[in-house]
């Protein structure tokens, strides 16, 4: 009998409670019988799926037998088991094609993390005190079942809420089916790295509320507004691979790259030309280029839904002549003209927007402007341009936008009346402004269950922690949204046996559903998540990718071996549907919180190369990874231009206070040439109160002091809209890996 | 050794008094001695504790880091090996040059050499990451068939320092034997037995004297190239690497000159203290300090010349990496230390030594203390700035010593002093027989005839001694 | 035919993402030293991505430059090691023999690229992070120098397997961890003794240059210079 099945059986029959009641962990180490067929010293490679960001790359995991200390049946002992030693990209996976980013490599440390929750826990002190006591799966699951049964019997199914991170693939399907069958509202998704403004713009411009993909390998000119596409944005590995080909993959032909941002990012460091337009004016710059292209007839005039959304387009964008654009953006008109001529002389060309520009109050305008520019360039759905990844022909219950939105529900007081909250893969207490008081709101919910593997700022509020397996120990599936020109469903069996007494979240949900029975049991008939996956993949057997289609058994085996299913390359990108009847937009000045006189500097938090939104701060490799630009390790810095610092009397390694209208934080200063004079920037991800020994009490969290400004059209946080003031308050130490900033500092001095 | 005209102790006539004066430090045990030993001993103990702490916890308790992988320990290494050149210069060079004023100071100098070498030679072991395997540097046949890498300057160090140590020890110990014999004859009780063993049966026969003189002559000739080679090789620890401002041909003569410079200064300091605390005013007359002071002045000028020549070429050559290191000491964070070093090595000594009126015992003492400090700084400023700014600016880094390194450094100074004090307690710090050679011939006519062959029986008839002296140490002129 | 391993770093492809840095940590059991030691400049990254700024805002430029052991043919670190812990292998690598290292750190001073790293303390892994350690790579103790080995364990493993299967090594075999992970494919590795291998061809590129080549270390890593958009007529 498989161990998983054994666990389930004991849970259902209550056998484990009898066992765990009698025995205490033995003093002596027992040797358990290996549960796998292992040859010492011989490595095997197993496919898996990377879950650390929205890219959804495919992995190959190197497994070597080794001896691990584990607890089985309440006894502490050792066991020979296959241990994951190294992660590589899956060479066959269409998104990353064998390559893997820094964060993906570090995912290995999640499984072996010393602070992983290694068994079900029940809160034993006041909420949020961090005191938990070990309990059994049988007790924990039955408590959840009883709580849910209670609210169902009281006819209050809508008082069950799920707060989750990104929900894709069958994971997402399972949650949606569960909630629908229970009668609860849709899951509230909280994913700080999502791009709701971009989705909205793409829905309006192209009829698809999706994040686009880019055919960089065949483009000759890329202008990118603010997106860190080579670092953390969207699908960085696929985009980097395309970028590499764009540069040196075509003998005799090299694509050019222009980046527009106020703070030099890792991506911006690679640009041939770096343009620091004023914050919130990126859309103006894009339309300024479009104006020149229309005026000088560098491109055939296009009238499309995307362009119709821009006020004044059919008149040739009179408001975006070089002169007014120069006034707004700070970029000389001549430069804009040159850019327009350059880009059109080097088609196929494509424009990209993401990150900070979309975090302004006028972010939607900027996104629509770039969509119009792409339309004018003829780069929508063409080689070297942008496109939307094909969706696999799977039965999907609902579209992504059907999920709820945590921020919307939080701010709309929709959390009131929640009796039971299930937490999964999300840490809003950490990643939201203090002004939103998320912790208070959540803490009022009577019963909170977390499926997380770690105690963090949100899961520490839980009454029960039902720790999920780590990704490498789980059945995984994913449907990547971007970075591929063919439909992809990633799928992989567990690469490793579970190290600890954890339970896969989907399997826990299925167990709870079965115990609750009724509609819920009917809606989720599968014994295990594995079965659900197998069923869901069945329609793909004949949907392409494998020619001729294999038998169902062979198909299932092949899918597991190669790490998923991928369809054939689309022969022709289809034309996209265009909804009608939206009002045209025009540029509005971005709104900022805080008077310029008291808060003279723009505050730009940015997604961190090491920690993303903070969800990876617990990984020691990521703490010690020097940031590509700042080279900071184990800390946070306030990046400030040396001239500005001098004016404020701040020197390198001074402790500074950054104060907005809604909070203050303290962190060491980092003098950096690559930032505008009126901007200070901080990487997100540090400043955790409680997130493992490596991240707790370290650095500062820039998100906390953000003003609760929202982008009107989407309700998402406008995280670039805060103004701050900075002052020196003391001395600090910042662990930098680098010494000198300049390669020839000496020559610079003599200038 | 034939006498010369510049014998500083020519005025002394009374052998018995000489014996008494020079053996008294050996004979007496005062409270002050115990106090000094205890104090110095505690500091030395602190140093050993710090080293033990480092051995237990790992070399990381020191301040070394990437890219400054050598810091205080190698500074001390080079410094103390440099100090050890005192002996060679005084004993060997002055001996070969027939300078009579070296007589009272040879042993002081040779002792510095041996102890400085011992202390300096500890540092290659202290600074190792895995010192328990230091014996791998010894070329011994082993079952792995592995020999050390003879191309490495560290192996050259190993051989050179050991050779110099053996040579200097020989050079020190041989001429002590007649003085041990004298002590054996003058003392009674346990001291008589103790010195009896140490004197190795010395009878003072013609043949023994001849052998001794020959041996000293040979050693004097051999030890000079050995000493030059030692600090040349130490300098090649740096010059054989492509590190900016290390990779310089000037390093070999620069280091040797610097070593002699610091050695003389250390010697002067030692002599001043001995003179004061052991009441050896008559035996270490001002002329010794005057001559040593002149030598120190010469070395100071030579040092300045080397430093200037090196820096001028670097600045003029304008090679990026080298100039960035130069700027560290001229304009950067190390500039204060740099100018302190120049003040200590030239600014203070030059007037004190060049102006005759100021070239007194106190003057040379102050100058010497400054030079000792300045030369330590010089080693530091050679090693650390270059390593902190090599070719790739991204990899630059700043060094900061920790308490472990500082404690051990201070402990070596205390250790040197302690060894010196202990030595002076068991061995006459002034070479009595050599002194007497200088004495005897000057006042040949006045002195009672002493059998040349029998220095051992130096018992002058009491009445004669009294008639002569009427006290201690009078000028005869 | 004997092999001579070399690498090409295409600076026009490199994006500065540091995937190579973490891949190397995972493959080679590189210790995490912690904040205190990182503050003291003792963090260990066998491959690092150097970042240099040029100019002042707004005319700022950034250059990324991955630096790893250049496996120099005329390595300054080799003659100076008193115990032969740093030596030149027959396949052209600069080998570091961990158990022969005394920790004099002379090699680290001599290396102009500052690619050598030292274990200032005994490394420690909070359990069960130690389960991730690669059994094919030694874990170094205090006092031992370490540096990039071109993943010599992978080279040896590939050679052993090829020998067992009675064949030559194929193109792309072996692949060091950094090369394998690099998303824009900026790193290329292979046999310089094979003139048709990708690494040999790219070493001959007109964009090729050696890092600190003027020092005469004869490094086996060739850097392909980043092209200047404005200077090129496309």
Radius of gyration of chain B: 24 Å
State the strand order across the main sheet of chain A.
Answer: 6-5-18-17-16-7-8-15
In the CATH hierarchy, what is the architecture of the domain at 210-387 in chain A at level 2? 3-Layer(aba) Sandwich
How many helices of chain A? The count is 24
Strand content of chain A: 15-25%
Ends distance of chain A? 76 Å
Order of helices and strands of chain B: HHHHHHHHHHHHHHHHHH
Shape of chain A: globular
- In the CATH scheme, the class of the domain at 210-387 in chain A would be Alpha Beta
Main features:
heterotrimer, A: 751 residues, alpha/beta, Rossmann fold, Dimethylsulfoxide Reductase, domain 2, Barwin-like endoglucanases, eight-stranded mixed β-sheet, six-stranded mixed barrel, 24 helices, 29 strands, 28% helix, disordered N terminus, C: 234 residues, alpha+beta, Alpha-Beta Plaits, four-stranded mixed β-sheet, two-stranded antiparallel sheet, 18% strand
Descriptive report:
The complex is a heterotrimer of chains A (751), B (477) and C (234). Chain A has 751 residues and is α/β, with parallel strands linked by helices. Among the domains of chain A are: 121-193 and 398-465, Rossmann fold (3-Layer(aba) Sandwich); 210-387, Dimethylsulfoxide Reductase, domain 2 (3-Layer(aba) Sandwich); 601-750, Barwin-like endoglucanases. In chain A, α5 (137-153) crosses α17 (505-516) and α7 packs across α13 (363-377). The N and C termini of chain A lie far apart (76 Å). Residues 1-24 and 397-401 of chain A have low confidence and may be disordered. Chain B has a domain at 72-132 and 150-393: Formate dehydrogenase/DMSO reductase fold, CATH 1.20.1630.10. Chain B is built from 18 helices and no strands. By secondary structure, chain C is of the alpha+beta class. Chain C has one domain (5-225): Alpha-Beta Plaits (2-Layer Sandwich), CATH 3.30.70.20. In chain C, strands 8-1-10-9 form a 4-stranded mixed beta sheet. Chain C has a two-stranded antiparallel sheet with strand order 2-3. Chain C has a two-stranded antiparallel ribbon with strand order 4-5. The radius of gyration of chain C is 18 Å and the shape is globular. Chain C starts with a strand and ends in a 10-residue tail after the last strand. The mean pLDDT of chain C is 95. The B-C interface holds B 57-60, 63-67, 69-70, 124, 127-131, 133-134, 136-137, 146, 148-149, 151-155, 158, 237, 240-243, 387, 390-395, 397-398 and C 37, 40-42, 48, 50-52, 65, 67, 76, 79-84, 100-106, 108-110, 112-114, 117-122, 141-145, 212, 215, 217.
